[in-house]
Amino acid sequence: MASLIGSAVRRKEDPRLLTGNGCFTDDIKLTGMVHAAFLRSPHAHARIIRVDTEKARSLPGVTAVFTGLDLAGKMKAVPAMWFLPGCDLKPKDRPALATDKVRYAGEAVAVVIAENRYVARDALDLIEVDYEVLPAVVSQELAMQDDAALLHDDVPNNLALLWKAGEIPDQVFADAEVVVKQRLYNQRVIPSPMETRGAVAQYNPGSGEMTLWCTSQNPHIHRLIYADVLGIPETKLRIIAPDVGGGFGAKIATYTEEAVVACIAREIQKPVKWVEERKEHFMATSHGRDEVLEVELAGTKDGRITALRVTNTANLGAYLSTFGAGCPTIDFGLMVTGAYAIPQAAVVTYGVYTNTTPTDAYRGAGKPEATYQIERAVDLFADKIGMDPVEVRRINLVPNDAFPYNSAMGVTYDSGDYQKALDKALEIFDYAAFREEQKEQRQKGKYLGVGFSTYVELCGFGPSAVAGAIGFQGGVWENSTVRVHPGGTVTVFTGTSPHGQGTATTFCQIVAEKLGVPISDVELVSGDTQSVSMGWGTYGSRATAVGGAAVSLATDRVIEKARKIAAHELETTVDQIEFIAGQFTVKGDLSRSRTIQQIARSANYAWNLPEGVEPALEGQSFFDPSNFVYPFGTHICVVEVDEGTGEVEIRRYIAVDDVGRVINPLLAEGQVHGGIAQGVGQALWEGAVYTEQGQLQSGTFMDYTMPKARFFPPIESAFTETLSPVNPLGAKGIGETGTTAAPPAVVNAVMDALKPFGVAALDMPLTPEKVWRAIRSGRDKE
Amino acid sequence: MIPSTFSYVQAHSVEEAIRLLRDSDGEGKLLAGGHSLVPLLKFRLTTPGTLIDIGEIPELRGVRKEGNRIIIGAMTTYRQVLLDPLVAQHLPVLAEAIGQIGDIQIRNRGTIGGNIAHADPAADLPGVALALDAMLEIQGEDGAELVEADGFFLGPLVTALPETSLLTSVSFLIPPEGARSTYLKYAHPASGYAVVGVCAIAALDPDGVVSTIRVAVNGAGDVAYRARSVEDKLLGHAPTAERIRQAASLAADDGEMGSDQFASEEYRRHLCCVYAQRALESILL
């Protein structure tokens, strides 16, 4: 039998989802349910003078209207959960509803509860709010200036945190043979899952139990935070993340709306539903990135990088979001040296409050920004010393014999073979032939370019002790129970609640392979805090490396117990039992065997168990990895730039990723495709645009460009497999490789194409007009 | 994304639709395919009291040929136009343009009359209508009249259509025998609408001199326009590469350019010229 682990098993989830039988939050319909709609501030910064809800209350069909003052004492503000030490962090919680001041356009000011969504929405137009508009600050650099308007009176210069890691004397740069300095802007993007946020809350006044269905990547984190916000013990607060239609990090965060909905369900003792409109989503759900990166790289003329210094001025938005403090510091800072053996490195991060939507994790969370600056800097360095960008990378990549590799930023890369991934990508690409074609095409007025990204990222969060040391208010271990029922079918429980990853397929593959049962006999349970005892959710590419590892270990415990029962029934000792493909067999005697299903029945009936063995067949594991995992690879992008219009076309995209053991190549490739689409999206099209007054201009899909399938050639995806030593599967993470590797690969490619015009740097997104202007000014110089 | 309250009525004849429009006291809005109107409703950018559905009026659908014109009922869907043999034979450029509108679902629902009456400056058909010398049949309380497409588009979402009138059909002039045509569109990557769309139709006389030339631009500004400066430069001349380049460089001269976060006025002006040049080269060289 072919191994299930490593097989392209089709997604167990798909038949249900594709036939419209999924159950998303909006599909939850409860008897007597009423609907919520939030009134949002049109201003980015304003004092609230008066909120008059009288007319809205009297609209037929309206159940109730609440302002921030109405909720006072009924729930708390929603705090962040990453309190980074040593950076003078000034956390600012999100108020339930704004009372004194609004700090970004889209902040909720009041909520209407009505018999249906239509009435609720109509009633919003009847609420009168008097605002005293205040000057707004949008750019993080301007917000830090002394004369900038303050969002929070007790946060001078709007500076929420100042984090420093490492130090390099100026002399190192002064003495260096070559120094490259570049300012890069990793622009703000808007995570746009197909399903927006939503919540349904039901309160049982008899028992005091609250059930909250919501669009969460991590229901146990939502329980932990909301229990405190709502004053409901975790024993009585049940969070259910049903089918979740994507998150990309935006559904990690605990927001106020979900908690407000629960609070009001308790107040009015009726189930309450809220489903975020797409227009709301653009403003009310966390944004990603928005970091100004100033990178300084020192090296030698023969291509060796000797030191790296980076300053990150990060826009945190109006409040500190759940992981907001961690993304531009730990997630970014620890990975600035990328895949290169750079002996010295230092990072300074300023985290700044502005009158914009709070920022938080977005697919990659800090690592894409880190990768962007180092991969761009390496290209600029190569340019400056006149060396091929591939050659510079080869010289500086961490060598194989250095693993586990301790980086200058103090983290230990678990395993790697960086040259191998680069070799494989180059082999698919045929670099020499490309440079020939590029030369020929340039003579015909066609501008081709190639960009490389030899990336590494940190994921698989992670050792809990490290989480504690960096101020994360939780653990990052995982939990799984594997339960074999009397009939031989298996239920697997996981704390890494998925939101589209296909976890029900991959985790069941692991269990089915190990137990030797058909995958159709295995089902995954996730997303419900009442079914799964604990877990920390799906983000940071941790599902397989941590959650999958827990599943694997729990399965081992099942086998261990089953082996004892089999030995007992087969009248031999445990060490005489072999377990292969679902059969327990006495060594050397194939006639004496039991199937796992037979043992499941024996264990559950418990008629005849060996001494000291308890009934039932179930294993549980709490897995806390010893380190993060560090997936890596090489991405190569080929573009053609239309000289006339500045449009960039992706001609080829090659991705060689090493994510350790690949459980399911079909799903892995899907993750690669999706991640690259989002990464290219950031490089070429996506970008949140605010006016100076803090109005979001890119607030609909008419203006905000999502990457579309027709923008891409077929992606050429391949893998190398360098196992991770930190978990029993040898797996790393795959979810964020594309968004991490792709932006610099694309930008490097466009810069390569624009070389004849003398263009060295442009900020993302590389929109046609921007590229056209660069070409034109390059021509003018000639 | 929930519209404000409105009432809905269905008209079963053109006369009924006009009566319903009149009775709605300016609060009525015609619903054709709905693919432009419904998003506006959801954003509450328009809040009509009554939607008058004209989707069930049979005489508003269909394609026929009369003399040197093809007449298309206003409620004929994009898809029906695309599949129509008369259009394929006589107005390939219309099919070429319609094939670039939206996606399959939109083409299945959206209508040619809805497109033109809605007058979205970034829509594809206003330019094509100008280039094909379209005549619009408008029926009102006092009967029907024919108006030229040139002059019908007054501004973004504003036309010369009277409040209680209905666009019933659009007739397009069949280009002369041997004419070549194209519609070249620079689509906004987010919306797919035209940042610039250039429709060009040209024919040469036996001496190789341009005898027919019609060029129209949509998307670049608030209204589609005929690029007459381009036409004048080419008419009566042999279309050399140099002449085409000179002519195309005038493509922005007859229209007002718009500006937004995606494309500035200057860039749009440039795109008009580039796209005009490419369109003309593809049909004349």
From TrEMBL, chain A:
Entry keyword NADP: no
Entry cofactors: Mo-molybdopterin cytosine dinucleotide
Ranges where the Aldehyde oxidase/xanthine dehydrogenase a/b hammerhead domain occurs: 19-135
Alphabetical keyword list: Molybdenum, Oxidoreductase
InterPro entries: Ald_Oxase/Xan_DH_a/b, Ald_Oxase/Xan_DH_a/b_sf, Ald_Oxase/xanthine_DH-like, AldOxase/xan_DH_MoCoBD1, AldOxase/xan_DH_MoCoBD2, AldOxase/xan_DH_Mopterin-bd_sf
Sample GO molecular function, one term: oxidoreductase activity
Superkingdom of the source species: Bacteria
One Pfam family it belongs to: MoCoBD_2
Protein name: Xanthine dehydrogenase family protein molybdopterin-binding subunit
Organism field: Brevibacillus panacihumi
TrEMBL record, chain B:
Keyword Flavoprotein found: yes
Keywords: FAD, Flavoprotein, Oxidoreductase
InterPro entries in the cross-refs: CO_DH_flav_C, CO_DH_flav_C_dom_sf, Diverse_Substr_Oxidored, FAD-bd_PCMH, FAD-bd_PCMH-like_sf, FAD-bd_PCMH_sub1, FAD-bd_PCMH_sub2, Mopterin_DH_FAD-bd
Residue span(s) of domain FAD-binding PCMH-type: 1-177
One function term, GO molecular function aspect: oxidoreductase activity
PANTHER family: XANTHINE DEHYDROGENASE SUBUNIT C-RELATED
Protein name: Xanthine dehydrogenase family protein subunit M
Organism: Brevibacillus panacihumi
